[in-house]
């Protein structure tokens, strides 16, 4: 990544020079004019570098550029918004929220900033505050599928199943192929004891995206619990070979799997054939080099 020359260091140098050589009463030194527009453009250029670095998981470098960008372009809301997002990705939630609120103060009608704050508070497990910010964003930009999905997730964590389903259905109404919302309605239905409806929804999600591991594994677990062992084992092996992260109960819990489904999953994972599949998938994952997310 080519480095851009920082005018901030030049300004600091001028400041130190002025201290070392104070002006006398008879002579006022000539100081070069600082072009604030150029400084701001420099800051926005650093923001672009920061986002590119973040795409390749280079978060320390991305953060350093984003922090400098806020100094060079302190009135640009995007500089604070990107810095806040990077802090969230680095799991520094308090600094992320602080930066996002600064961005919001500069651009209060930007729905994306409200949605980002909703996500930040969700990560802090402050689900009520998450709902407040997402709803505020939806007032500015209604019918946003991703935000409606996030709203459903927050309601789900607060054990508001009806509100969660309502939000997921609104997301699906805006995007018929939005399988994560369909998947999560299945999660709600399974916890309510309606396994048949959950299986139907998860199968629908898999039809929308054959690479969707989560609903495929959920179908496998539910079928195994119902006694359909052969089909369950085949689906479960296929899903776990696609992404071994789903063999981790904590990972599933983080993806909002409820107590009933998790208990059935632990039973499923205890099957020797599935244990062998998990061990092989995890071993292959360790030996394969990680590729940066695009």
UniProtKB/TrEMBL annotation:
<feature type="repeat" description="TPR">
    <location>
        <begin position="77"/>
        <end position="110"/>
    </location>
</feature>
<feature type="repeat" description="TPR">
    <location>
        <begin position="111"/>
        <end position="144"/>
    </location>
</feature>
<dbReference type="InterPro" id="IPR019734">
    <property type="entry name" value="TPR_rpt"/>
</dbReference>
<keyword id="KW-0677">Repeat</keyword>
<protein>
    <submittedName>
        <fullName>Tetratricopeptide repeat protein</fullName>
    </submittedName>
</protein>
<dbReference type="InterPro" id="IPR011990">
    <property type="entry name" value="TPR-like_helical_dom_sf"/>
</dbReference>
<feature type="signal peptide">
    <location>
        <begin position="1"/>
        <end position="25"/>
    </location>
</feature>
<dbReference type="Pfam" id="PF13432">
    <property type="entry name" value="TPR_16"/>
</dbReference>
<keyword id="KW-0732">Signal</keyword>
<keyword id="KW-0802">TPR repeat</keyword>
<feature type="repeat" description="TPR">
    <location>
        <begin position="145"/>
        <end position="178"/>
    </location>
</feature>
<dbReference type="Pfam" id="PF13181">
    <property type="entry name" value="TPR_8"/>
</dbReference>
<dbReference type="InterPro" id="IPR051012">
    <property type="entry name" value="CellSynth/LPSAsmb/PSIAsmb"/>
</dbReference>
């Amino acid at each position: 990544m080519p480095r851009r020359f920082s005018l901030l260091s030049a300004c600091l140098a001028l400041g130190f020079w002025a201290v070392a050589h104070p002006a006398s009463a008879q002579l006022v030194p000539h100081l070069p004019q600082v072009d604030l527009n150029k400084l701001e453009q420099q800051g926005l250029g650093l923001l672009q570098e920061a986002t590119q670095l973040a795409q390749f998981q280079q978060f320390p470098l991305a953060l350093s550029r984003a922090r400098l960008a806020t100094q060079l372009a302190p009135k640009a809301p995007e500089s604070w918004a990107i810095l806040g997002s990077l802090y969230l990705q680095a799991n520094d939630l308090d600094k992320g929220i602080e930066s996002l609120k600064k961005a919001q103060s500069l651009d209060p009608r930007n729905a994306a900033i409200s949605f980002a704050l909703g996500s930040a508070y969700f990560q802090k497990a402050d689900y009520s505050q998450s709902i407040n910010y997402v709803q505020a964003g939806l007032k500015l930009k209604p019918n946003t599928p991703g935000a409606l999905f996030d709203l459903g997730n927050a309601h789900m964590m607060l054990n508001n199943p009806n509100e969660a389903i309502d939000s997921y259905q609104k997301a699906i109404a805006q995007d018929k192929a939005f399988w994560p919302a369909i998947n999560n309605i299945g999660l709600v239905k399974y916890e309510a004891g309606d396994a048949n409806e959950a299986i139907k929804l998860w199968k629908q999600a898999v039809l929308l995206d054959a690479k969707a591991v989560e609903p495929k594994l959920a179908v496998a677990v539910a079928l195994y619990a119902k006694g359909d062992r052969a089909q369950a084992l085949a689906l479960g092996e296929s899903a776990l070979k696609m992404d071994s992260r789903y063999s981790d109960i904590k990972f599933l819990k983080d993806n909002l799997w409820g107590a009933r489904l998790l208990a059935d999953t632990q039973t499923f994972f205890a099957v020797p054939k599935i244990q062998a599949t998990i061990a092989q998938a995890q071993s292959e994952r360790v030996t394969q080099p990680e590729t940066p997310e695009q």
